[in-house]
Amino acid sequence: MAHVAPGRLCARHLARRLRGRFAAEQLLGRRRLPLKRQLCRRTESLPPAAGRTAATGVTAGCLGSLVGLGGGFVAVPMMTSWVGISQHLATGSSLAVVLMTGASGAFGYMQHGQIDYEVALAIALGGMIFARAGAKLMASTDATRLKLYMGTLQVAVSPLIPLKSYVYKARHDAGDKKTSEAANETSEETTLVRYGTIDNLGDDESSFDLQRFLKMFAVGSVAGFLSGMFGVGGGALTVPAIALSTDLPQHAVVGTSLLAMLPPAVIGTAVNLSNGNISLAVAAPLAVGSFVGGSIGSICLAPVLPEAALQMLFSVLMASLGTRTILVARRALAAAAKASK
Q1: Which CA distances in Å does 61 have to 197, 261, 297?
Q2: What is the Cα–Cα distance from 120 to 319, expressed in whole angstroms?
Q3: DSSP secondary structure string, 234-283?
């Protein structure tokens, strides 16, 4: 047996230990590398990050419920920067949580007949077609560039949050003038049922509107693509679009949006699952935290906090997070380009 110097043995041992540590860090997502074909992690693989992931869900769920969003715009940046998982894993797990929370919310609105199924169908058809393309593009996009695109989307969507309140107020004022006489004869519950499963016979509004259907299909296509690409629910886009294109009441607008985005979320989640971009260790505490945070926001905080000020504050917060994400991603891209030279 050939004699091996002790120094060489120490070097080999150190190399093995470094390779093992590198593999462990890649599994935990701390190096934020694009993970295209990894298996779904078991819950016990991330015990130190479970608390932070749950706290992320509480924060995103609470803020989202206060301003009428699913919270994905907050959850994804927090998971990549604070929890320390990869951009792809955060996006895929966030979309899975959007699917679960959206399903529960849509069921409640369906029970009260607060859904326009024609509008929901148009949005869902467009979303289903393009959500798969968005999820596939997400899997093939570099993590740093995906973060850059996410920050750009946050900045672009931030003005839409206070816009929703403006649209609701304008429509409410117009509706008061238009239906002042009918309001004495028809209750709000009857008006909501008209947009649900019961047809309003003899009313022109019950007829099929092709122009509105195509408009909602286009909105659903864009929202579905963004949902699959970035792991967000798409409500920031669909809710104002439905409010501007229909005369549905506010609760019916939200319920229709929730139901419409469920099929695209299913498609995007299936693609992310096949690509290994969903982790039970991340999705489970995130879902629990989102449920708790959403309950706190909608039950405890929303009745006592001013909605307009909250929406403006959340809009500024999202724009700030998006700007920070863009700057971090651009620095990373510049450093990578410099290192490759």
Answers
A1: 30, 17, 7
A2: 29
A3: -HHHHHHHHHHH----HHHHHHHHHHHTHHHHHHHHHHHHHTT---HHHH
Q: How far apart are CA 131 and CA 260, in angstroms?
A: 12
Identify whether the C-beta of residue 97 lies closer than 8 Å to the C-beta of residue 57.
yes
Specify the range with the lowest mean pLDDT, choosing from 105-109, 149-153, 230-234, 326-330: 105-109
Cα radius of gyration (the chain) = 23
CB atoms within 10 A of CB 83: 26
pLDDT recorded at residue 180: 58
User: Which residues are CB-contacts of 220 (< 8 A; sequence separation ≥ 6)?
Assistant: 122, 123, 124, 125, 126, 127, 238, 260, 264
For 200-223, how does the pLDDT look when each residue is reduced to its tens digit (9 = 90+)? 433 444 577 888 899 999 999 999
Residue 226, SS3 per DSSP: helix
How high is the pLDDT of residue 127? 92
Check: CB of residue 264 under 8 Å from CB of residue 106: no
Q: CA–CA separation, 155 vs 137, rounded Å?
A: 21
297 Cβ contact partners less than 8 Å away, ≥ 6 residues apart = 61, 62, 63, 64, 65, 66
What's the CA gap between 254 and 108, in Å, rounded?
11
Looking at this protein, which amino acid is placed at residue 163?
A: L
Among residues 236, 302, 285, 265, the alpha carbon closest in space to that of 70 is found at 236
**φ/ψ (deg, to 5) at 125:** -65, -45
pLDDT tens-digit map of 281-302: 888 898 888 888 888 877 787 6
